[in-house]
Write a structure and sequence with these properties.
Layout: H1 5-72, H2 75-86, H3 93-111
Helix pairs in contact: 1-2, 1-3
C-alpha cells in the first residue's frame, strides 16, 4: 500500500510542527529558569543593601551620640551611644553574604 503525496506532506508538517512546539517548550523552560535565578540574585542584592543601610544607620547614630557627648558633656548623648552600642540585633552583612555562598555551593554541587 502506497501512501499518497498528500499524506506524506501532512505527516511531514505534523512532525515539523511537533518539533517546533517541543523546541519552543525547551526554550521557554530555560528562559523561565534563568528569570528565576536572576530574581533570586536581585532579591539577595536588595537584602544585602538593606542590611548595610541598617548597619550604616546604627554606626552613624553611635558616632553622633559620641560626638554630641564629647562636645556638650550632656549624658543624653552618651545614653544614645550606649543604646546603639548595646543593641546587637543588627544583621551582619557578612552573615547575609555567607548564606549566599552556601546556596551557591549547593547549586554547584547539584549540577555535578
Amino acid at each position: 500500500m502506497k501512501l499518497s503525496n498528500e499524506v506524506k506532506i501532512s505527516g511531514f508538517f505534523f512532525a515539523a510542527a511537533s518539533a517546533g512546539v517541543l523546541i519552543l517548550g525547551v526554550v521557554t523552560y530555560d528562559s523561565t529558569r534563568n528569570l528565576m535565578v536572576t530574581d533570586k540574585s536581585a532579591s539577595h542584592t536588595l537584602e544585602v543593601r538593606d542590611s548595610l543601610n541598617q548597619l550604616l544607620s546604627a554606626v552613624l547614630g553611635a558616632e553622633n551620640g559620641r560626638r554630641g557627648y564629647l562636645m556638650t558633656g550632656d549624658s543624653q548623648y552618651q545614653l544614645q551611644f550606649e543604646i546603639t552600642r548595646a543593641s546587637r540585633r543588627l544583621p551582619a552583612p557578612k552573615g547575609v553574604t555567607a548564606r549566599r555562598e552556601k546556596r551557591r555551593d549547593r547549586s554547584i554541587i547539584g549540577w555535578i
